[in-house]
Amino acid sequence: MSLKKSIILIIIVLLIDQISKIYIKTNFVLGESVEVFNWFKILFIENEGAAWGTKLSDILPVSDASGKLFLTVFRLFAIVGIGYWLFDIIKKNSPKVLILAVSLIFAGALGNILDSVFYGLLFDHSNHQVATLFAEEPYGKLFYGKVVDMLYFPMIDTTWPEWVPGKGGKSFRFFEPIFNIADTAISIGVAILILFNKKAFATNPIEEEKEETN
Predict the structure, then answer these.
(1) Stated pTM of the model
(2) How many other CB atoms are found less than 10 A from the CB of residue 46?
């Protein structure tokens, strides 16, 4: 997979991700949902933390603001590392499946970083109102944006049978996480690495010959 094809894939993922987020942000009130199917809903939430909404302040004795800044800066360093890895494996002519997976992970990570870095400057808040793009009074500042999530798949929404110890009568929902296109790209990339691990990290015959010659 060439650098050109990798860049095209990254741009496509970023465009779909950002267009969907901007549409949701400028057309939905926070918490608003639309049922597409009984097992799929568009539900607008904002994520201030890491995966599944986890905040650093939930784990360490730091303020929400400090935790948010740390996570954003960490993501920036991470995307630089992933970008270097992608460039390196393309340069080494690594297996296409590896380049595909890393390209998807890079695109997804970059998509969420754009939210974290810039959305606080671009939008006003979404509480009880539809946000405005390029708002005169944005809800945050640089590095303090919230990630927009909207894809929700409550494929099973029921209650536990009364006879189940500790769970009887309580609600049970699968699948609960709410995510976005960027998260989907990252998940697909990671899944490819897991499922096609041997193929992705197979030794490149050309590189092997060069090493033996040296």
Answers:
(1) 0.87
(2) 23
Q: How many residues does this entry show for the chain? A: 214
- Write out pLDDT tens, residues 43-98: 999 987 665 556 655 566 667 777 788 888 989 999 999 999 999 999 999 999 99
183 catalytic residue (yes or no): yes
Residue 44 host element (H or E): strand 40-47
Q: What is the pLDDT of residues 134-147, one digit of tens each?
A: 999 999 999 999 99
Q: Quick check: is 149 catalytic?
A: yes
| 47: alpha, beta or left? (left if phi > 0; alpha if psi -120 to 50) | beta
Q: Are 69 and 173 contacting, i.e. CB atoms less than 8 angstroms apart?
A: no
Estimate to the nearest angstrom the gap between the alpha carbon of 180 and the chain centroid.
6
Catalytic, out of 17, 115, 124, 149: 149
- In whole angstroms, give the CA distance from residue 182 to residue 35: 21
